[in-house]
Specification:
The protein folds into two domains: 5-63, DNA polymerase, domain 1 (Orthogonal Bundle); 68-354, Aldolase class I (TIM Barrel). Helices cover 34% and strands 19% of the residues. The protein has helices at 12-21, 28-37, 52-61, 125-128, 137-154, 178-189, 209-216, 233-239, 242-245, 248-262, 280-290, 315-327, and strands at 5-6, 62-63, 68-74, 80-85, 91-98, 107-110, 114-116, 131-134, 163-168, 201-205, 223-227, 267-272, 296-301, 331-334. α1 packs across α2 (28-37). The protein is elongated and about 70 Å long. The two termini are 30 Å apart. The structure holds S-adenosyl-L-homocysteine (SAH) and iron/sulfur cluster.
């Protein structure tokens, strides 16, 4: 199997090279590309507009290895979590989250960029499990194709595309796997393929400053989300070890540069941890940091994780913190909790325990 040519992730030009090399006309490449990315088909036998003998030939010499769904869980709110396995048996979890209660409505897909994560944030289930490896761009695209296909199988819908948004908020730090992450975005965005609008894509980073500078030069229309979680270095060092390398001053210089360069509004994510980062003084310093940037703040009530001692604040405190920020002039939203009953909420993704 390993000697077969991998077609997943080849551009149309590369596919053309491949079909010509096996003695076929160039236009077959566009047909194959369409099957993979628009029709989400990875079995050559099903590619009905290719001649039968070509389908057999392709099956002998090539492969489209979209990753496999090993398990799936469905939450009461319609969120679905897939345990997905790559060719080398490494696994990640991927989540699709309904944007409304209507189950045949649109979904957001939460993509991973690494197996595990090297940053090791103290509150995150992925960080707890350590780092295994980076995903390639075509494995990231493969996660999209597998999830889209699986979703379509389960949800009866006449919509071509059930996935309306992609957030790079699954396992791993996207900007530590920079090249592959960016390449996967261009792939998702390709109008001849998956055709997902850049404005429907969000990348979340724990504050990998060198990657933020690079991203500023890409001329992409994606949304950048920064996982802030603390407004002073002392606490942020404790929560996100990467802050020791890139303290808040460096992070904010990078974000300001990014905003100046791209003219795009960024989002700051702020996990609410009971008794840790939700005092009035935390709100005040958060306002001071964020207000000059005209950014959005997304508050994320902590999703509790086994073996991690942090807790979600009571509803009253969440509301109070929200109100402080709003009266301080910030543009704030509270993330609705989805999929917590199947451990599919942010930061609950881990493959070690395989529940
Ligand atoms: N590594 C990137 C992207 C993946 S994490 C990052 O850290 O930004 C996606 C989001 O989920 C981040 O904002 C992260 O801080 C948050 N998160 C992690 N663990 C969480 C938990 N237990 N409860 C709520 N949010 C969590
Ligand atoms: Fe990695 Fe993000 Fe989890 Fe931190 S929060 S350990 S950066 S995945």
């Amino acid at each position: 199997m390993d000697s077969k040519v991998e077609l997943l992730g080849l551009s149309i030009a590369e596919l053309e090279e491949f079909v010509v090399a096996i003695g076929e006309p160039k236009f077959r490449a566009k047909q194959i590309y369409k099957w993979i990315y628009q029709k989400r088909e990875h079995s050559f036998y099903e590619m009905s507009d290719l001649p039968k003998d070509l389908r057999y030939k392709l099956d002998e010499i090539a492969i489209i290895s979209i990753p496999r769904v090993l398990k799936q869980k469905v939450s009461l709110d319609g969120t679905r979590k897939y345990l997905i396995e790559f060719r080398d048996k490494k696994k990640v979890e991927t989540v699709v989250i309904p944007q409304s209660f209507d189950k045949s409505g649109k979904y957001s897909l939460c993509l991973s960029t690494q197996v595990g994560c090297p940053i090791g944030c103290s509150f995150c289930a992925t960080g707890l499990g350590g780092f295994q490896r980076n995903l390639t761009y075509y494995e990231i695209v493969g996660l999209y194709l597998t999830s889209a296909r699986e979703l379509k199988k389960k949800i009866r819908s006449d919509k071509e595309d059930l996935i309306a948004n992609v957030v790079y908020m699954g396992m791993g730090e996207p900007l530590l796997n920079y090249e592959e992450t960016i390449r996967s975005i261009y792939f998702l965005n390709d109008a001849k393929g998956i055709n997902l609008g850049q404005r429907h894509i969000t990348i979340s980073t724990a504050g990998e400053v060198s990657g933020i500078y690079k991203l500023a030069e890409e001329n992409l229309q994606v949304t950048l989300a920064i996982s802030l979680h603390a407004s002073n270095d002392e606490l942020r060092n404790e929560l996100i070890p990467l802050n020791r390398k890139y303290p808040l001053t460096d992070l904010f210089n990078a974000v300001k540069y990014y905003i100046d360069k791209t003219n795009r509004r960024v989002t700051f994510e702020y996990i609410l941890l009971d008794d840790i980062n939700t005092n009035k003084s935390d709100a005040d310093s958060l306002i001071k940091l964020v207000k000059p940037l005209l950014a959005n703040v997304n508050l994320i009530p902590y999703n509790e994780v086994d073996n991690i001692a942090y807790q979600k604040p009571p509803a009253r405190r969440i509301e109070m913190f929200y109100n402080w920020l709003v009266s301080g002039g910030l543009n704030v939203t509270i993330r609705e909790e989805k999929g917590a009953d199947i451990d599919a909420a942010c930061g609950q993704l881990a493959t070690k325990k395989e529940r």
